[in-house]
Amino acid sequence: MVTIRDVAKKAGVSVATVSAVINKDSEVNVSDRLSKKVINAVSELNYRPNRIARALSKKENPMIAYVVPTIRNEFFSQIGHYIENFAFEKKYGVYLCNTHSKTERSNLYLNNLIENRVSGVIVTLTWEIMTSNFIENLLEADIPVVGMAGARKRDDIDTVLIDDQEGSFKAVEYLIKNNKSSIAFVGVEESKTTEIRYSGYKKALKENNLKLDKDLVSIQKDFDREDGYQAAEELIENNGSIDAIFIYNDVMASGVIDYLNHQKIKIPDEVAVIGYDNSVASYTRPKLTTVALPKFKMAEKSMQLLFDRIENDSKDNYKKILIHPELIIRETT
Description:
By secondary structure, this protein is α/β, with parallel strands linked by helices. It is built from 13 helices and twelve strands. The chain has helices spanning about 5-10, 15-20, 30-45, 50-55, 75-90, 105-115, 125-130, 135-140, 165-175, 190-205, 225-240, 250-260, 295-310; strands at about 60-70, 95-100, 120-125, 145-150, 160, 185-190, 215-220, 245, 270-275, 290, 320-325, 325-330. The chain is elongated, with a radius of gyration of 23 Å.
């Protein structure tokens, strides 16, 4: 089946340009030269655009999209819950798009969102989004975008980001103040968020005159419970002196707790544990101390920014909102 991306490739233009030519009422101006190239490509490929998408004019589709790396991460699913509620209040529906950190998935969603003329998009600023033309194509199609979470920054859209260095610094400094001196760090590979949280970890060590030990740093392939279990196993077996572990997120931290419990290592007396994001922290046994991210506030601010763009059609003065995390003390420290 021929897609709009095939037409764009054939014509040598963007997906957004093809969409603007096909949807005459999109109010996006395309030169005669480019329009002719698109029309020729449509004819040669015998492309048949989606009738519903073709009939939709600018901002007449009461739908927005929420684009995340994976809804399996409780952090994103909990924010999605709030986004859906805010959208419902405005009588909008929500498309959920899981990229699984794959560019081919983000490209598919990009095509669908443009063809269906969604009114706006909230997207996590992950590497596959930032290294592709995902946001550029949406903006070219005159679809408002808000970047929420993720560690990357952009100047051409509104963003709601987290001060991750501050959050990790608070966690590690708390451990140090509670007489922990051999503190391990667990992160995820190819993750800008890991880099920033690791910088807060190193900053806390340095400001409290503790030496950085690379043997106490474990970088895993993914951010699931099993990865946390594996990280704890490797760290404890190779470093018997560890008295605390700071972990990338709560789900991984739950795996760390599983391993410590299986090994009958007392928490927090022998090894303290701190997670990040406050997604499943109250479900673990013992209950997890974590760096809490105000998910309701993040969703609220993101939706306010998005609907301001949708309703006022403004394209400048982009806002950057920085959310400050909070350390919540529970039973693992």
